[in-house]
Amino acid sequence: MTDPNTDGVDGDSPPENDGHRFDRLPATAAEREVPGRPTRAEVVQWWEQRYGIPPATWEEHTFWEKGNGKLWAFAADVVSPIPVESLGLRILRTRQEHWKPSTDAVQRFGRAATENVVRLDRTEAERFARGEDQELPRWDGDWGYVIAAHEIADGVEPIGVGLYLHGELRSTVPKGRQEDLS
Amino acid sequence: MQPLERYASIVDEFDAFRAACDRPLPSVVRVNTLKASIARARAALDAYNVEYEATDWHPGILRLEERGPGTSWPYFHGWLHGQEEVSVLPALALDPQPGDVVWDACAAPGSKTTQLADLMDDRGVLLGNDNNLGRLSALRHNAERLGITNLVVTNQDARNFSFKPFGDRTDDENRIEAVDRALVDAPCSCEGTIRKNPDALDQWSMDHVESVVGIQKGILRRAVQATRAGGTVVYSTCTFAPEENEAVLDHALETEDCELREWEPPAGFETDPGITEWDGDEYDPSVELAHRVYPHRNDTGGFFCAKLEVTG
C-alpha cells in the first residue's frame, strides 16, 4: 500500500511531496526533509502575524501536508505518512507567494482573529455569502487575504475569506457554500 | 406499502403506525456545539425569524416550522446541521468521550459522524469510513462545514477494515490497532425512511433484505473484532425487518465476544424492546435490550438501535 521508498526515485535527490498521502509537517526548519514544505513554526507564526490568532490556538493540533502546499490541521496525532482520504480540516494553501486560508479554517478559528478582519454590515455580508465581489473603499487595512465577518447573536462571527485589492473585496466563498441569505 | 404489513403482529397500534408512515417528517436540525452554543444558535434563529420548536427531549435538536435549514445564517456558519430526529439516537447510545478512538464504519453522508465529533468535543480520533467514494465527498463536505478537526476519512470495505494505514503492527507510538468504540449504522432496506422518501419501499424485496443481511453481519462482526475488550459497539438501522436487526445481533452474539447492554434513550423518547421470535426463528433473549423505534410513538422516522459491550 504505502511506498516504502520515501527518498525519491534516485537515492541522491531529496524526498518530494507525495500528493496521495498526508505527511506531518516538521516542527522547525532544522527538521525539514522535504524541500519547500512549510514548518509547524512557520504556520503558527503566519496565523499570528497575519490575523493575530494566538499560537496557543493550535496547541492540540498537528499539521499535515497533502497535495502541493495544501495544509491540514488534525486534532490528535497519527502515524506519518498516512494514506487516507482526509485528515482533519484543510486550513491553508502554501507554497505560493501569498498563503491563502480556507473558508473552513476561518469559520472555525477566525473568531480569535484581531487583525485583518473586515466587518461587514447586513447587505455587505449577504453579498459576500452569495460569492459576489463588492466595492469597499472604507477598508484601510492590509491588502490581500482578509477575514470577512459580521455581527450575529451578540458576537462577531467570521463568514469566510475575502481578497482585498484596489478598493474591492472579493469573496472566495466556494461555489458549494455560496448562499442567498437576503 | 406491502412490506410493512409483515409487522402487524409485532407493532402495537398498527393502524396508528401505518398512519404515521404516511405523514411527511418535519425538518429537523441539530446544533453543532463545536461552533456555537445551543443558546447562541437559537438566538440567531430568533434574530432571523426562523421559527422552530425544540424537541421535548433535547434542547439542541430543533424542529423547524418551514423552510429547510440550508438558507439561514446560522446554517451558513456551520452552527446547525440537518439531521433526522431519530438518527440522533445511536451516537447518544455510543456515548463517545473526548480523547477516545472511535470508528464509524458506515459514515457517509455524516450526520451521525459529525454528531460523534461534537460529543467528543472534537478531541481524540474519529475514523469515518465508507465504501462508497461518491458518498464520502458528502461526508467530507459536511465535516468541513461544521469545522471538525478530529475526523480521519477512509474508503474501505468495513467488513475487512484494516488498521494497516494507521501503523498496525509497527512500533510507531502513534499507531492505532483497535478502537474504544464503534458505530455500525448499517446499510439496510430503509423501511423506516418511508416518511422522508415515499418511494423507499418501491424496490423492497425479500431477496434484497437477505443480501443486505450478509453485509450487516460482516460489518458488525468486524466492528466487534476492531474494538478493544471493554469497549462499546452500537448497531443501528433505519428499518423494521427483524432479519436485519435482532437476527444480526443474534449472529454477532453467537460468533464474537460481545454482549448486549442496557441503554436508556433520553427521557420522553418512547421505544419498544427488541423481539426474540420472528418467522419461526428464536433469538438470544438479550436482544430484548435493543430498541425499536416506531414512527407513531414519537412522530419520527423508524429506527433500530442496540448497544453491545466487547467482552473478549
From TrEMBL, chain A:
Keyword annotations: Methyltransferase, Transferase
Coiled coil segments of this chain: none
InterPro entries: DUF7122
Segments of this protein annotated with the region Disordered: 1-38
Domain DUF7122, chain residue ranges per copy: 14-88
Record's keyword annotation contains ATP-binding: no
Record-level GO BP terms: methylation
One Pfam match: DUF7122
GO MF term list: methyltransferase activity
The UniProt record lists the keyword Membrane: no
Basic and acidic residues composition-biased segments: 17-35
Protein name per UniProt: RNA-binding PUA-like domain of methyltransferase RsmF
